[in-house]
Design brief:
Number of helices: 17
Distance between the termini: 56 Å
Helix content: 25-40%
Largest sheet: 8 strands, mixed
Number of strands: 18
Shape: elongated
Structural class: alpha/beta
Strand content: 15-25%
Length: 490
């Protein structure tokens, strides 16, 4: 493969001079065209980019994937020769047409520009085409979710497993201390395009290795492993699209990755991935997925569940097969497979592991909106689970109410006592918890400056409750409230 780094460096300079960033494109398109493009409708965006400025031309060529006039590029000060030399475009008569999709990436916090992702041209609904078997997808909702989940801490040694076009490695490059990123993929074409993403983004020194799962790095350890893996649960042995299907049965790819991660992590190291898992008739999903973990603190979160028909429809739309002659047969094969396996639903979520000698495991469902990026506070979430297990009201323990709590009281107007008291988080995971008088009173007074014992005695005296009962109640309920982030140990 020829060295594209120098022409890609020149293209990067042209992109940046034109303001070809997420913020620049968002401002160019406006809310209506931007919203339509998010739904894969390009007509409003084409109408919004007819002016001939460098930003409009680059957006049309590399995001909307339509040819542009070569003379218009020249008039805008863009050198088409660099685009051709970089392998991003090719001449077509008097026009230049895109060979690849090149899109800007926004930083995880949404406050700036992170780099660029080079991928295969998007296959949009209604085009009459389906992706090639080795199709490499660009940045999307899943890659964005993973980038926002990854823990915010400096690291020395990172593995991006199943790198695809390299989105996670681009996001993580600035977090190295300094160190090395290793990016792996089973698809050679993905590694080629990832190398282009890195060159176009100025992401230097990434090690690229071909292979499945952890085989390319067996025997090595990392501070951080991230993976947006081929988690799609397809009919047995199906591996039509390498970007989404592993060919392993059921949810086995995610299970194997979770099981193998501890031996690949440094002490205190993290493994974070997106996953799908099966809901099997008669087996709680928490029990199935919880059995995957060992040797690590684990936080497994289910964000959504689809029934088998919804799931098949989702991925048939993803590959633009809806409405094709094969659509009904593929749909039927998917439902047949789920019926034989006793599958009642498929869960979508994320898994965070942290290598630990005394693992704490939390498996839960979170459907509410949460503050992003989760990576900014994921470490404190795991610490909360561990601290909850060690908590006791004795021995001078101190706790404080978490910042940003609000208390809601529900009951008939004028009633002396509320029927229900709710503590609600206004930040982070935004949980809500029904609490009793003792917990509500503690939330109002404990700031970590005093041991909890005298506070509980004071609450007992003020409420007329038995001090022993107050202490026993606090011992029973506070660990869960600590684990949920309503209180913090000091």
């Amino acid at each position: 493969m020829r060295d594209l780094r120098e022409p890609l460096r020149r293209v990067r300079a042209a992109f940046e001079d034109a303001g070809y960033t997420v913020g620049g494109v968002r401002g160019l398109l406006g809310a209506v065209a931007g919203g339509a493009l998010a739904r894969d409708e390009v007509v409003p965006a084409l109408r919004a980019t007819r002016g001939g400025s460098p930003l409009e031309l680059l957006t049309r060529l590399f995001w909307l994937q339509v040819p542009v006039d070569a003379s218009a590029l020249a008039a805008a000060g863009l050198d088409a020769r660099d685009l051709l030399a970089a392998g991003l475009a090719e001449p077509s008569g008097a026009e230049v047409r895109p060979l690849l999709h090149a899109e800007p990436l926004e930083s995880v916090g949404g406050e700036g520009h992170a780099g660029y992702a080079v991928s295969d041209l998007k296959v949009r609904p209604g085009s009459g085409a389906v992706p090639a078997d080795d199709h490499v997808v660009g940045a999307g909702g899943a890659s964005g979710n993973l980038a926002r989940l990854v823990v915010h801490k400096a690291v020395d040694n990172v593995l991006d497993l199943g790198t695809g076009c390299g989105v996670q490695a681009v996001h993580l490059h600035d977090r190295l201390r300094p160190g090395r990123i290793t990016a792996t993929d089973v698809n050679p074409r993905a590694l080629e395009l990832a190398a282009m993403s890195f060159a176009l983004s100025g992401t230097d020194g990434v090690e690229l290795l071909e292979g499945s799962l952890l085989e390319p790095v067996r025997g090595r350890r990392f501070d951080l492993i991230v993976s947006n893996p081929p988690f799609v649960v397809a009919p047995s042995g199906d591996r039509r699209f390498t970007y989404r299907e592993s060919g392993m049965p059921g949810d086995d790819f995610c299970r194997r990755l979770v099981a193998a991660a501890p031996e690949m992590l440094e002490d205190g190291g993290y493994c974070q991935l997106l996953a799908n898992w099966l809901h099997v008739d008669g087996v709680p999903w928490e029990e199935r997925v919880g059995a995957w973990t060992a040797g690590c603190d684990a936080w497994i979160v289910q964000r959504d569940v689809q029934d088998p028909a919804e799931y098949a429809e989702l991925w048939l739309r993803d590959s633009c097969e809806a409405g094709t002659p094969e659509h009904r047969a593929r749909y039927d094969a998917w439902l047949d497979h789920f019926e034989r396996q006793g599958v009642t639903g498929i869960g979508f979520g994320w898994i965070t592991l942290r290598r630990s000698d005394r693992p704490s495991v939390r498996i839960e469902e979170l459907r509410q909106a949460v503050d992003q990026p989760v990576g900014a506070y994921v470490e404190s979430v795991l610490d909360g689970f561990r601290n909850a297990e060690k908590f006791s009201t004795g021995c001078g323990s101190r706790v404080r109410a978490a910042a940003g709590l609000v208390q809601e009281q529900v009951g008939p107007p004028g009633a002396e006592d509320p029927e229900r008291i709710v503590l609600r988080q206004t930040a982070g995971l935004r949980r809500a918890a029904g609490v009793g008088t003792v917990e509500a009173a503690l939330a109002g007074v404990c700031d970590g400056s005093l041991p909890i014992d005298p506070l509980l005695d004071a609450i007992a005296q003020l409420t007329g409750m038995d001090a022993g009962q107050v202490r026993a109640h606090a011992e029973a309920v506070l660990p869960e409230l600590i684990a949920d982030g309503f209180f913090e140990t000091v």
